[in-house]
Amino acid sequence: MQDYVKIGADIGGTFTDIVLETPAQRLTTKVLTTYDAPERGLLDGTLSLLDEAGLQPHDVTLIVHGTTLATNALIERRGARTGLLTTEGFRDVLEIGTEGRFDQYDLTIEKPAPLIPRNLRCVAAERSSATGEILLPLDRASVEAAAAHFAAEGVEAVAIAFLHSFANPLHEQQAGEILRAALPGVEISLSCEVSPEIREYERFSTTAANAYVQPVMARYLRSLAEKLRALRIDCPLFMMLSSGGLTTLETAIRFPVRLVESGPAGGAIFASETAQRRNIRRMLAFDMGGTTAKICFIDDAKPFRSQTFEVARTHRFRKGSGLPLRIPVLEMVEIGAGGGSLASIDTVGRLCVGPHSAGSEPGPACYGRGGTRPTVTDADLLLGRIDPAAFAAGSIPLQRTSALAAVGALGGTGDDPAILALGICDVVDETMASAARVHAVEQGTMTDERSLVAFGGAAPLHATRLAEKLGIKEVIIPRNAGVGSAVGFLHAPIAFELSRSLHVRLSDTDLVEADRVLTDMIKTANEIVRKGAPGAALKETRTAFARFCGQGYEIPIEVPPRKLTADDAALLKDMFYEAYGRLYGKIVPRLDVEIMTWRVSVATVAAAIEPIADLSEPHTLVPTEFRPVVDVGTGEILDYAVIRRDALAAGDSFSGPALIVEDGTTIVVTPAFDASIDADQNVVCRTRRAERA
Q: pLDDT > 90: what percent of the chain?
């Protein structure tokens, strides 16, 4: 038996990516996602890799899993029948929201409908103040009446969200005990546990989302665990969190809303490791799969982070049009641009790509599974970028004639399908470039000063052209880039984050209560992490979210990992001034500073990552195979060199244009780039002349 046999599995909208890793080897596979039973593709792919490695199911020592199931349940409204119990007078918070409008001038604006309809929203007589003082004791009879109503309506889950419960959770805890006794088998989510933070709409929305997906995720995860045991795979099963850490199955079932962005988080970890190995200070991580593309900025090997996320946007990529979730996530922008993104002609005759996708069922037209509408993958095939016999290691032979018919149907009589395919690829590249530029402005950074690391099945096909549009001079495609997120799962720490709102003005200089809150959260997070990593060394991180008094939004500052004293108020204020000035360019020194929310993170300590070795003997590779490819930058048909990635050795170098073919993807090296292979078998592309527009 091997020292360890790890399995990483990422269920995406189109493909399920699976990685098997041992001390001696890493094997990968991609299978189409099985929507009717998502675990089927995962299990079939796992057994296939074990057979390829000559291993038995009982040899597996660890499985790490990320899934879009919670996300899809929210987007497609396929969650459980859920009830809400809230404070009397606040029944319609989920409907009213913040009263903000994401488009001030659209009279037909469509806001997301609440996950919980009004007839399933009940109230209880109770009230606490913003400081946690009990103003009106909880009325037990009103909670019992709500329980009877929920039972009559057949709810499967209940969200309890009382006003100001982040300051005093007592009433929510009491109501939870009453409902659990009255509604056996019904999942109960308390906002004081799911999201104990200020801003009632965001807290209510997050708790409702957690309750809404909890029965679905609980059934899926428990079923997966049972099926793994039936196959004699009886090892720890960890779930990937949206914050970039791993957690136990029990914690994932309790807080399934934290799994919403688990796949992209694995990709960010994959890119961060590359940044550490190559000592890249500023990186742009680019993940393009079959359904969406994700862009994440990484500085000093640390992805940007956020405490908020939106899901199920009615205007899919319009900020403010979705359901807000107050959960720790890695900061990234998601674009409806994947290999399966559908191309169309709009009412004014413009070529559009996305945001809707063909998914895995029926998939792009070239898959031959019933799809008839043109996609980015169909366009890439027609341009000559993809070998139809080598796609997904040959497991999905592509049909050029079907792609030709689908793309040709876009235009009028006489339109050249190759020109339409060229337009599809350029539109999707520009869509991603525009999103990256906007995200850079929002984050106060630049794109052209960064290296781009690309992963996901479709990203290597588009990475160098995207880099040209963004003015990026270095593109890195790591080994196993086609399944990058699943690889990242295997390198993620076991971790958990907790946040709690506690208002502190730094002029008051009393941090005793803040220290107590931090200590309590550290203890809770430690207990959760210890369940998955008993005896492991742990790292604690503390963060405060501060603002000038009177402002509406906060910025994070790091809190010293020790007992806080009154003297630390001045230290925290100076740290806030520095962070605020770095972000906005100036400060307002006469205004007091207040902290609204405190966050702690506890994670296992990762092994040190050694810098990549220098190569002493680089040498030029002379390609022997070529293929005509329509170059997206010029529209010309050029002879691209065709090179198998497994035939490349560290130190090999060659000039574009070239196609590097591997089982999980194809890397397009445009004519503007030279490529080389570093000691980690990464493909490193660097510009050799001025970038094209």
A: 61
Residues 409 and 348 in one domain: yes
Place of tokens 């990992």: 561
**Highest mean pLDDT: which range of 461-470, 589-598, 657-666:** 461-470
The count of domains in the chain is 4
Long-range contacts at 126-131 (CB < 8 A, ≥ 24 apart): 126/87, 126/88, 126/162, 126/171, 126/175, 127/87, 127/88, 127/163, 128/162, 128/163, 128/164, 128/165, 128/167, 128/168, 128/170, 128/171, 129/164, 129/167, 130/164, 130/167, 130/503, 131/167
Length of the chain in terms of residues written: 693
CA angle, 27 as apex, 300 and 682 as ends, to 5°?
40
**CB within 8 Å of 188: residues ≥ 6 apart:** 157, 158, 160, 176, 179, 180, 211
The two structure tokens encoding residue 479:
């080994």
pLDDT given at position 693:
38
Domain residue limits at 529? 495-604
Tokens 């996305």 sit at which residue? 354
| 291 in the same domain as 376 | yes
Whether the upstream peptide bond of residue 324 has omega within 30° of 0, thus cis, is no
Q: Is the pLDDT of residue 656 over 90?
A: no
Give the per-residue pLDDT at 317: 59
573 vs 628: CA distance, rounded Å = 61
What's the whole-number mean pLDDT along residues 310-314?
Answer: 74
CA gap 231, 90 in Å, rounded: 49
For residue 195, give the CATH number of its domain.
Answer: 3.40.50
How does pLDDT run across 315-358, given as a tens digit for each residue?
A: 655 677 788 899 888 888 878 788 888 999 888 888 888 778 88
CA distances to 35, 45, 258, 312, 536 from 16, rounded to whole Å, are: 11, 8, 20, 22, 31
β-bridge mates for residue 584, sequence order: none
Within a domain: residue 590?
Answer: yes
**Averaged pLDDT of the chain:** 90
Asked whether the beta carbons of 164 and 192 are under 8 A apart, the reply is no
DSSP, residue by residue, 122-158 = EEE--EE-TTS-EEE---HHHHHHHHHHHHHHT-SEE
- Structure tokens given for 593: 């500073």
Q: What angle do CA 54, 480, 260 make, to 5 degrees?
A: 100
The domain that contains 506 carries what CATH number? 3.30.1490
Q: Would you say residue 304 lies in a domain? A: yes
pTM: 0.86
Burial 296-320 (b: 16+ CB within 10 A, else e): bbbeebebebebbbbbbbebbbeeb
Q: pLDDT value at position 692?
A: 42
Distance CA(127)–CA(117), nearest Å, equals: 23
Residue 405 host element (H or E): helix 400-408
Both 53 and 83 in one domain: the answer is: no
